[in-house]
Amino acid sequence: MTQTYVPLLVVALIALLSPWMSVRVFRGLLPAIVIEIVLGFAIGPHGLHFVSSTPNVAFLADFAFSYLMFLSGLELDFDLLFERSMKSAWPGWLRGLTFFLITIAISLGVSLVMLYLHLIQNVVVMTLMLSTTSVGIVTPALKEKGWLNADFGQETLVYALFADMLTLLLFSTYIAVHASNNAFSFLLVMVLVACFVFCYRGLKVLRRYRFLRIVENATSELGIRATFALILVFLVLSSSLGVETIVGAFLAGAIISLLDNRHSVLSHKLNSIGYGFLLPIFFVNVGMKFNFGRLGTGWVFIVSLAVFLLTMYANKLVPSLLLYRKFPMRQRAAGGFLLSARLSLVIAAAQISIQSHALSEGMANGLILLAVISSFISPSIFSRLIKGYTVPVQADQKAPAIVIDRNTLPPGWSFAQIEVTKREVSARRMRSLALPNDVLFISILRGEERIAPRGHTRLEQFDKIQVMGHPTALDAVRKLVGPN
């Protein structure tokens, strides 16, 4: 019984040590997940042979693998993807799609040349693996340097989200068809997408009912329980349809992203469960299973890896230099280098490719090695290139702190807290409501959460909105969202 927990204890110690090493030893240049992979290899059977993976650790790692894809879906900001920016003539989805098409065109060109030279056997898998990026590295790097909420950071995030989303869906569809040698497998993926739409619509209606709010409390954690039930529903559906489970997990994350605020308490808890417990198990287990002895050998393999590494940077730098038009050239290059970081999806795709025989084990391990190298190089180069630029200060950051009371309000204005009770108002964006002019929304109270209202914010039944305005305008708001 004791030996059952020893590998898990070692994984927990590595998970505890890795963030400290990332910050204190490597000055933030090496992500914690890379350290977890390296330390996993060091203590594993192909390193010091201090510990081996057990069935319990392997099961948790497999589930963490699916949970990683769930978090990728949770990271999707649909407002960012589908809303038109005030400073750009193109909506986010079109900019992201253009960036991705340029990326995949370069990757396809290189893969076709490599196929012609008999250096690879599968063009599609190689093209998709070269085209991905890592949102898990891009987002923390932007946040650390303060660029996440600036125009440059939001533009970079759009490109990263689109690369992750489209590569995952295209790769999973291809693997499903390749494994069965039957184009009918594509329809099974579409069935899963149809289930995604059905679940989203059903949950959107269900969440309006008050009984769910009555059941929800600090001990029940209904949101967490419902989320894990949803993940398992899609994992079971994927397995039953013969589709890769990562697609189901990704779609489950996308549903939560659509239904819930990405910065809500629930999203924070789900990220904490993943990054605090499950994901370190996955990455350490990847390191424990990695075997340098199974890498390819010979000059063909070395040349192939060198070409792939150059392609991984070229297919992000070229579209970055073309599409980051409103930013200086060095800042464009910084975005391109950061987007060149690969890790999670390449590791996932490599493992699936080995199981489906789409790639040899040597080439798949080589691509994992390149992903680890890129995740070390890319954030470092980004930090150096972006260092000379100052993050634009938002308007609200320039102004001094102001205390709002009745003396600072326009004549005749007052405060009010109004509860949303009308179902027809729920789930509608605030900008689509016929709101009066003489009113200002301060915040929205949703349970224990306080939300800053925006035009794209969706109201929910039983929200409490805090507003100030002229009494006539406040009465109009009450009639609009309150009792009939």
UniProtKB/TrEMBL annotation:
It comes from the Bacteria. It is found in: Membrane. The chain crosses the membrane at residues 6-23, 30-51, 57-76, 97-117, 123-142, 157-177, 183-201, 273-292, 298-315, 336-354, 366-386. The keyword Transmembrane helix applies. Keywords: Antiport, Ion transport, Membrane, Transmembrane, Transmembrane helix, Transport. The keyword Ion transport applies. It is a multi-pass membrane protein. Residues 404-483 form the RCK C-terminal domain. Belongs to the monovalent cation:proton antiporter 2 (CPA2) transporter (TC 2.A.37) family. PANTHER family: NA(+)_H(+) ANTIPORTER YJBQ-RELATED, NAPA-TYPE SODIUM/HYDROGEN ANTIPORTER. This is Cation:proton antiporter. The lineage of its organism: Bacteria, Bacillati, Bacillota, Bacilli, Bacillales.
